[in-house]
Design goal:
By secondary structure, the chain is mainly alpha-helical. It has seven helices and four strands; from the N terminus they run αααααββαββα.
Length: about 180
């Protein structure tokens, strides 16, 4: 599956956004303006101006909506939710080549709020997955003690863990040790 740089950045941003929930993180990672600014900087979200508590509230609502897209059981449900978010964001496609990146398309209107920016750009990135027949790439980690979301961009769609170095490795080591215990008995 061919994904351009900007779509990949938007997919990474929406995964990070979904994973900031208290039910996943253990605490509210976007509880204040400083946390929200950290999210913006970590994801290198462009064209974001001043943030305030209203932005925190609006991004929490957008995060909940994206979480429902990840949990959708079929393309019709996911596309209906995405269509609503994209329309409400006032999507305004425009070409840009900022920050040393080649030409790419931004979908948010100039001066859009952060929530609308995320709704437009991240919504379009997820919409591209549905159009490509790849919604099943939106996943939740298989590790029993992890609830993190991820987008499986592996060639054969076989990724099971949010991070193979942590969740995947931990489960593989536990299985290995269990096998060793069985053979030692």
């Amino acid at each position: 599956m061919l994904i351009n740089h900007d779509t990949r950045c938007a997919l990474d941003s929406v995964v990070d956004l979904v994973n900031t929930q208290p039910s996943i993180e253990g605490r509210e990672a976007l509880g204040d303006v400083a946390g929200l600014r950290g999210f913006v900087e970590r994801n290198r979200v462009s064209e974001v101006g001043r943030l305030d508590q209203d932005d925190v509230t609006a991004v929490h609502a957008m995060r909940a909506r994206f979480t429902e897209v990840f949990r959708a059981t079929d393309d019709n449900r996911a596309s209906a939710m995405l269509n609503a978010m994209i329309a409400e964001a006032g999507t305004t496609p425009r070409l840009t080549d900022h920050d040393g990146y080649d030409w790419h398309v931004h979908y948010f209107a100039p001066g859009a709020s952060l929530a609308d920016h995320l709704g437009a750009d991240c919504g379009m990135a997820l919409a591209f997955l549905i159009v490509a027949g790849e919604r099943e790439r939106l996943r939740w980690c298989d590790a029993p003690d992890c609830r993190r979301a991820f987008v499986d961009l592996s060639r054969n769609r076989s990724r099971r863990y949010c991070d193979s170095r942590t969740c995947g490795n931990r489960l593989h080591v536990a299985a290995y040790r269990a096998r060793r215990r069985e053979t030692a008995v």
